Amino acid sequence: MKAINHDNWLMADAEGRSQIADARVWRQAFLTIRLDSRVPSDISRLFEVARGAMLYSYFFRPLLSNGVEQCYRALESGARARCTQMGLQVYCQDSQGKPHPLSFGHNLNGLVKLGLIEAADLILWQQARELRDWVATPEHQAALTLNHGVTALSRAATLLGKLFQAVTAGCNLIQHAD
Hints:
Blueprint lengths: L22 H9 L9 H16 L5 H24 L5 E3 L5 E3 L2 H10 L5 H16 L3 H4 L4 H31 L2
Antiparallel strand pairs: 1-2
Helix pairs in contact: 2-3, 2-7, 3-4, 3-5, 3-7, 4-5
């Protein structure tokens, strides 16, 4: 990890790497990934934090792991928001009446039951849960590359887009079920 100082804070972080990616290539890799406009703005903001951390990881590589982790937070928040939109319970109460959020896995199962997550995509959603924990360990953080970041960001954009594209279709299904 590079030790940031007054002289190198705007220099590419080449610590432990034989070559540095071109800044334009790095920038384009993240800026070309688009999020569907139907994704709620609070989830979009989480996604943009992930993108920003990954972009600026060009100068300080540990930010890449922060960006990847943020992708998984955006996915979990997206699943919770979609459950809320569909009227699914996202909290339970303890014996003293204090609300506690239900798990990411619980929310995913509810969305699958409503047909809002396809079986093929469920595997990717479940991997997000596992990878969130994997990327949090220091030895894995150091191993992350540009490709890891691009994959995490593009996968988050795709999964969130599919989840919220179904907004109209999901609402129509519920209306016809009466």
